[in-house]
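Progress against Task 2.4 (sequence-to-structure conversion) is shown through the following example record, which the project officer requested during the mid-term review.
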Amino acid sequence: MENTTDISTKTFSFYGIELRPVGPWDLLALRRWRNSPEINQNMLDTSFITPERQIKWYQSILDRQDQAHWAVWCDGVRTGYSNIKADGALQEQQKFEVGGYIGASSVRHVLLGYALILAQWHIAFEELQAEHVEILIKGGNERLIQFNERTGYQKQEKTADGTL
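C-alpha cells generated for the chain above:
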C-alpha cells in the first residue's frame, strides 16, 4: 500500500520526544554533537564536519524523496538527531535504514535512546508500512549493539561485498 504523506516535512510527537524536520537553525547543534568525540567515534565516517560541509549536507537533504531527517526534542530542548533512509522514495519502499544519536543536552538520559528507537519504529512500521528496518552500527561499538539487541534488533554481519 502506497502512503502519499511526505513524512520528511512532518513533526512527530510520541514517547516523550518530538521529531521536527531539520532546519537551518539546527545545524550548529547537530554539527557540534556530530564532531564531539563521544558521537564521532561511533560514526562510519569519522572525519571532521566543517561549517561548509554541514551546509552542503543540509542543502543535499532538502527535497530528497529517499530520506527524512529530524532534530530530536525533549521537554522543549533540542537533544539529538534522527533519520530514515531507503533505496527509493520512502513512500514506495518496505525496507528502511534508521540512524541517529542523542547529543549532550540538559535533558539527556538513557531512556531517550529507547524513545528514539520506538519513534523510528513508529514512523517506519506505522507511517510507511515497513516490512524490514535496519540500523548500521560501526564494528566495535558493543554498547550500541547490545542496546539495539535489547530493543529487538538482530545482529547480522555484512560480507566484504556488502551482502548479509
